[in-house]
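Predict the assembly for these two chains.
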Amino acid sequence: MRLTLKIWRQKGAADKGGFVRYPVDRVDGEMSMLECLDVLNESLIEKGEEPIAFEHDCREGICGSCGFMIGGVAHGPMPATTVCQLTMRHFKDGQELVIEPWRAAAFPVIKDLIVDRRAFDRIIASGGYISVSTGNAPDGNAHPVGKEMADRAMDAAACIGCGACVAACPNASAALFTGAKIAHLNLLPQGKPEKDRRALRMVGQMNAEGFGNCTNIGECTAVCPKEIPLEVIAIMNRDYLRASVVRREELVAAIAPVSGWDVGGKS
Amino acid sequence: MSSIAAAPPQNRAPGFWASTNGKKIVMAVTGAILFAFVVGHLAGNLQIYEGPQKLNAYGRFLHSIGELLWPVRILLLTCVGLHITATAQLALRAKRARPVGYSRRQAIASSYASRTMYWSGPIVLAFVIFHLLNLTAGYIHPGGAFVEGDVYHNVVSGFQVWWVSAWYIFSIGLLGLHLRHGLWSMFQSVGIHQPRYAAAMKSAAFAIALLIVLGYISIPISVLLGLVK
């Protein structure tokens, strides 16, 4: 199978960037999208060109590292799939695929297809934790959790933080991600002590980052590789509304976004 | 007390109105109030089929309760103002949230109505302003003299002008699209979502929007066909 990959190349945050067309011969239908890029990169390295930078880690759809737009759809045309699990047999011989990074102000491009998703880390850091006593491990089943509630929390916790929801949203909203992270703890008794503060802080942080608003149109859940339901956004809104009404303390501080990729590390 | 004042937060998290979630909740509540008006207004309008006396009496009745009429009008205007302010601010924020657009983007799940809210809203607003000048104030009333108090006459002579009716039908159609998404979306914004009812709620939003459109456009169509004269 022959494919033409029209890929976004950008040297760094300051570079303007642009598309470059790469013909790729001998694409095997069993290859994943990332393996197809590996093959292309091998040939680029052999020619002495700079290989295409893309993020990847587990290559089994559970780490949340990989992801880019293929033909205008986050993670490509197959539902519930990350690009590492998207096999090339879903494309036709001779097809041209437009591949570009997630586009959002909160996700600045680092290089080529890699974007800086630390805004997600800051949202999690602002409230994605529970209080536990240190010392001996608690008794198993000390907190009774109903099966239905456990399932709902587990469905929300399946979020791998890949960023496809933001990428697919016309407003670049992080509502599905933040909703999933709030819901998976707020639905469980272990998450109860910080429930209100979590909703306030995580929503506050999401708004302090440059994400847009949710218009409830559902593009996010359609591209989500873990099929996080739209319901988590309603859970976020409900918990946020409740917490806004009942809160007694002053407004919570947001974590300041770190500007620049190399700030904070050893250069 | 001093311990609270000691360390003011360096970065304050956005408050309720400053947050996108808070603005959407405001939009949901104001939208619900405006929807209630749309239903009430339709119920009043449909009295046109009961003849001039009935409709004109209804108009007089509304004006006779002046103490109530203006509070209601102020409430509606406040809702319109808040709904539009929140939308405009959110739209500008959404634009800033994606400074570099995609070369290609494909919508795979969203409805046409949901993607065109930013268009249907302003056009309906322009229509409402025209509609108020046309049939409430009477400043723009092609198709004969505007008679204060003779609601029936004003409506019929107004709608006999084809482009007034066409503009009305077009705008009501857009209002239907707006409601089709908005009636479902408002529940999501305030945090009500039960997967078991989600499909039924979407269908209900569609059905209600359709009924409202049919109810409203039946009036200019009846006038144009000569059924109401």
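The mean pLDDT of chain B is 92. Chain B touches chain A through 52 residues (CB under 8 Å).
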